[in-house]
Amino acid sequence: QVQLVESGGGLVQAGGSLRLSCAASERTFSSYTVGWFRQAPGKEREIVAAISRSGSTYFVDSVKGRFTISRDNAKNTVYLQMNSLKLEDTAVYYCAADTHYGSPWYIELLMAEYDYWGQGTQVTVSS
To answer: What is the Cα gyration radius of the chain?
Structure first.
């Protein structure tokens, strides 16, 4: 089992920044596509960003230009850097790993594709 440990959530004012970290238990983490998802109160969980093993990235339109995703394979860690935060970014954020190989990119946008999930970390943006 791949265990994912998240950190970095918290309370921040609008316009501020946070960096979320997702640390994995295995070196093989570097070969997985990793996604960040979020779930706001009363809403369904949605993808925010993803990064493939080659470093290709995806961002939902609402965070493009504000968020970046990166990975440090030596530390088995994926980061989500969140800048210019808005009230609408308030949600519980989850990281997830897809262990499958060779899936088309659009498949990586589906929550059901991911095999392992972190526990979630709260991000609250206030005025």
So the answer is: 14
